[in-house]
Fold this sequence. Notes:
It contains 18 helices and twelve strands. The chain is α/β, with parallel strands linked by helices. It folds into three domains: 52 residues, no CATH class; 134 residues, Leucine Dehydrogenase, chain A, domain 1 (Rossmann fold); 163 residues, NAD(P)-binding Rossmann-like Domain (Rossmann fold). The site of glutamic acid has 11 residues, from strand 3 and helix 16.
Amino acid sequence: MRGSDRIEQIYGDVVRRNPGEIEFHQAVKEVVETLGPVLDKHPEYVEHKLIERICEPERQLIFRVPWQDDRGEVQIARGFRVGFSSVLGPYKGGLRFHPSVYLGIIKFLGFEQIFKNALTGLPIGGAKGGSDFDPKGKSDGEIMRFCQSFMTSLYSHLGEYTDVPAGDIGVGGREIGYLFGQYKRITNRYESGVLTGKSPEWGGALVRREATGYGTVFFTEEMLKVRDQGIEGRTCVVSGSGNVALYAIEKLQQLGAKVVACSDSSGVIIDERGVDLDVLKEVKMVHRQRISSYVDHHGDSKFIANGNIWDIPCHIALPCATQNELGEEDARRLVANGCIAVAEGANMPTTPQGVRVFQEAGIAYGPGKAANAGGVATSALEMQQNASRDAWTFEHTERRLREIMQNIHQNCFETAEEFGSAGNYVIGANIVGFRRVAQAMLAFGVI
Ligand code: GLU
């Protein structure tokens, strides 16, 4: 059987063995359907069942997270940590706290993380975790008690050489602080390298907070460069208003673009003069308010409740909110409105049908596992600094991040060309990431 014929069979087995986990199926399909030519070139990958092994996590933890709310009532959440691959380094990937979290979400994210982390060229394996706990509207005390309980159940599975979580949706600097404090307390070790995304005041890396958003913009810059285009003077929309979106907006503005819209789960704000980032940061990061509060500070901006951000004409669109937020019709509208580049700051934000529209239209499209790899890459730089008990400057770290994003872009671009799909970053990213993991798996034998 030809390697490429095996793919269909492998995907069928994944669906059968992981019933109901639709986001995981989607993430697997998107990767394996691009690997046929690689398998044809490397029969040893088929013989050693590398794809079948990659699709089965090395380990999956599911645990109870009991906590008490401010009224003293006992609440029970479910915690997850899925270690997908540790052939290139310790398990590495964020924690997501969101009511939509279930095993299928964590597995899609963990699966993507294997290839994303391999793409960075740094020594990190792939993992993801989180909980169906909903942080929205919770007090500081409730967040702290939840994080402490979560860590109490998970700590014995973590370690700087074993598994190194970080943030994702619903987990930022505050949560990492509570998680780290509890880990330190239980283990009696100041093990800085066990978590990343820490505050620079106590072991965190400068630029980590900005890295995912900045990196997505650096990747966009590279995609445009090969087309003899640039970011300066472009009109942009950025979905979301969390950590990734805010710093994508910041870097776009620094590079001379105008960001006219962003969003949260309640709706969209449009500010034709360009989003005022100081006000947006104040609303979202300091006061943790809904995005409509922005309009109170900027009377001539507009808030559209439940609006669709992809209706707004732009040259550059950065989906930085969540999975499957940009569908086929959205993609068509973006292309019709003159969009020239889409880079994903979020994980899997574009549906497969949406991706097809971008590819058929021939616009620059950067999939998340390449375009948003700057976050986890800077986490690996944080681990480096922790291991050497050092702290780098902002400028040095940002320069490293930019180089890493340039390298990822170049590797994806050249590999897509090598496989006869010039300009297709999906194929490039999947093949580069897969080959790195595959070579290590072959070297290690059947484990
Ligand atoms: N959650 C981020 C991601 O999706 C970062 C993970 C990390 O820094 O470990 O890549």
